[in-house]
Write the structure tokens for this entry.
Amino acid sequence: GAVVSQHPSRVICKSGTSVKIECRSLDFQATTMFWYRQFPKQSLMLMATSNEGSKATYEQGVEKDKFLINHASLTLSTLTVTSAHPEDSSFYICSASNRDTRSYRGRFFGPGTRLTVL
Amino acid sequence: DQQVKQNSPSLSVQEGRISILNCDYTNSMFDYFLWYKKYPAEGPTFLISISSIKDKNEDGRFTVFLNKSAKHLSLHIVPSQPGDSAVYFCAASENYGGSQGNLIFGKGTKLSVKP
């Protein structure tokens, strides 16, 4: 299957700093990127959906000014957690797909980024 | 309120036996269901799916059963192998959106297959 990478895999930062997480599709054009968050013992929750070249669509309850998403190319999307606080500590995972692929088989997930805010 | 529920956080099975992972849902608008498998340090990978118009879908050792009236689905793995040890996520979607649609995930069940 296709490969989606995330960088960094793990990050620890101080409260108040901003953290950028990269999601790359390595062998296909990702017209759509999904960003999920998973708190301990909880399910993956969709935060936002972004289409290449467009503004991201955020799910209810997700602050768009806090979680900045950029999807400027067909292979890269970034999630920036601005002014991170301990409650933002979570597992962030991206998923990429190409709109020409009709099946869910065409959606691929990255390995995730563990964010810990001290 | 959790729309997709996997009530067993873990399951341990002997190699060669059947593994049954369960999933319940509350939203009657869901019409497509998927199972994903996740190894440590890797992203979830698609395993098998089923449309609401079917009650069974089989792919090799993996079979998914759907009981719409009970809003319940299950994943059967027969025979179980140590390489099947992973976290399994159940996911559901409304109005099948293909690769672009939103997926609602359960919390996952960690399967351990003992040699």
User: Anything to note?
Assistant: The two ends of chain A are 36 Å apart (CA to CA). The mean pLDDT of chain A is 91. Residues 34 and 79 of chain A are 10 Å apart (CA to CA). Chain A is about 0% helix and 50% strand.
